[in-house]
Design goal:
Blueprint (H helix, E strand, L loop, with lengths): L7 E7 L2 E7 L4 E6 L5 H13 L3 H15 L1 H4 L8 H4 L4 E6 L3 E9 L2 E8 L5 E4 L13 E4 L6 H13 L3 H11 L3 E7 L2 E6 L2 E4 L5 H15 L4 E4 L11 H15 L2 E5 L3 H10 L5 E9 L4 E7 L1 H9 L8
Parallel strand pairs: 3-13, 3-14, 8-12, 12-13
Antiparallel strand pairs: 1-2, 1-4, 4-5, 5-6, 6-7, 9-10, 10-11, 14-15
């Protein structure tokens, strides 16, 4: 385990989570459970926690995830007031093996203050009128939301492939996905794939291929960091799921990257567990404790998950 890896996290207060703790993360972590159980919120809380080092980076991360959630609503519209994004969180507190973070939005007597505290340092306050918004996002912590990457994001991540001279490897992996595609290239400002001797915009091949290439590029861009993938099987045919997990296990080890992913698919869970024979990964199932009206988690390693999948035990992929 890399020193930068999350080993455990306690989400004391964020959205649907209150005193919610998950322990014993591995290099690869798959999260399942029923709809609206908090899988995406968990990714968001963890991403904020890892990225936040001060008030600006905390608020930038909040903006980042809020913008992703509102992708369709804001698409093509100018953002007139960034504050509506990062003021959506009034209070946030998390602890992990890496650090402790607390944030409070104080709104009293017509004055708003953003209050941030890291570990045992003194609380830092910024008046909302004095805060300058920044998009200074992390260089090794990345997030693929359920809409997938935009062309600009894919191009940015592809630069990590180029910087490490991995174009040939990427093209080999693409041919494993679809033998009819020869290669991937950015021409001008458009990601394109070569098909029957001609380069064609990647959008012409459907969401699955773009998502596949996005994951590969994002892994290399997340060297010595973390990659969060919401709905990892999005647009991917079930016959390709094993290939997806093979490359995630292989590349994440190569670049020392910790991966957190969510899924709704039982086929995705089965493919994950088939590849996870060396227990480099772990499956975490979120479920609602009806008696306590809280969200709980159950961790299953390779052997435990294999038993549940092969002996009719309940695995909540839906």
């Amino acid at each position: 385990m890399g020193e930068h890896f999350l080993q455990w996290i306690n989400i004391i207060d964020f959205k649907c989570f209150h005193e919610f703790e998950v322990k014993d993360f591995h290099r690869i972590n798959l999260i399942g459970g029923k709809n609206n159980i908090g899988k995406t919120a968990f990714l968001e809380a963890s991403l904020i926690h890892l990225n936040a080092k001060d008030n600006p980076s905390f608020l930038a991360s909040v903006f980042w995830i809020k913008f992703a959630r509102e992708n369709i609503n804001v698409l093509g519209k100018p953002i007139k007031d960034y504050k509506i994004f990062y003021e959506s969180i009034k209070y946030y507190k998390t602890q992990s093996n890496i650090k402790t973070i607390e944030f409070k939005l104080i709104d009293a007597d017509g004055i708003k203050e953003y209050c941030f505290k890291l570990d045992d340092d003194d609380e830092k306050k910024i008046n909302s009128n004095d805060f300058s918004f920044t998009t200074n996002y992390p260089v090794s912590i990345h997030y693929i939301d359920n809409f997938g990457l935009s062309d600009n994001e894919l191009i940015k991540f592809y630069s990590s492939i180029q910087a490490n001279d991995h174009e040939s490897k990427l093209n080999d992996l693409i041919r494993n996905f679809d033998s009819n595609i020869d290669s991937f290239k950015v021409i001008g400002d458009k990601p394109q794939c070569k098909f029957q001797g001609e380069y064609i915009d990647i959008t012409e091949f459907g969401d699955g291929l773009k998502h596949y290439i996005s994951i590969i590029c994002a892994l290399y861009a997340s060297e010595n960091g973390q990659l969060f993938i919401d709905e990892i099987d999005n647009g991917i045919h079930y016959t390709q799921l094993k290939n997806i997990w093979k490359l995630i296990f292989e590349i994440s080890k190569e670049v020392n990257c910790q991966v957190f992913a969510t899924t709704h698919s039982k086929e995705c869970i089965e493919a994950f567990n088939e590849v996870n024979s060396k227990n480099d990964g772990a499956y975490f199932e979120f479920y609602r404790n009806k008696k306590k009206n809280t969200i709980s988690v159950m961790k299953r390693d390779h052997e435990q998950l294999n038993y549940s999948l092969t002996h009719g035990g309940e695995v909540r992929g839906e």
